[in-house]
From TrEMBL:
InterPro entries the UniProt entry points to: Cbl-bd_cap, Cobalamin-bd, Cobalamin-bd_sf, Met_Synthase/Corrinoid, Meth_synthase_dom
Protein name: Corrinoid protein
GO biological process annotation, one example: homocysteine metabolic process
Endpoints of the signal sequence: none
Organism expressing this protein natively: Phoenicibacter congonensis
Source lineage: Bacteria, Bacillati, Actinomycetota, Coriobacteriia, Eggerthellales
Amino acid sequence: MATKEELLAELSDCVLNMRDDDVEEIAQQYIDAGYDPNEAIFDGLVDGMNKAADLYEQEEYFIPELLICSDAMYNGLDVIRPHLPQDQANKKCKIACGVAQGDTHDIGKNIVKIMLEASGYEILDLGRDVPIQAFIDAVKNDGAKMVAMSTLMSTSMENMGKVIEAMKEQGVRDQAKVIIGGGPISQAFADKIGADGYSSTAVEAVKLADGLMGYSD
């Protein structure tokens, strides 16, 4: 019988190398062996997705490959999640993700969404070209504890600041953290508009969210 480490490596490889037809069988072997389901997710499936995201950043993988990798990850998650302890199944908070108003480029947002979901967050996907009020409503009405905004257009950057200002005006700024990212975004811009954090990659976005929400080790 395969060891835990061998099965975790196989799960990671299934995601990284787009073996979406094999991953469920490997995940079931892992569960049948009685190993920790949390490790299967984070040291197996998410590890593979992190490696795929790295290849995307290096322009060795592109969107079609990344989508197949995410399919493999989700296929594995479907097998693993029912075996998580009930109090851990949805242990992280809800994050509202969206592309700032005026921008319809959502590839980066979708990658961040995949990574945050894999890490255990509940994602409210607001889509692209999101009206300012929609972000505030996600906090007021849907219980989002974090707002994650992206843009690839410098002309839409100011709308990120407008979201934060509107959150202050409507009394919900202290109810949710705000993180931002995208091609023209920088830490200096995040500081300027009063965001809680900035990330340049999807992998770093997960680390940032964990740190801000207190999920880091």
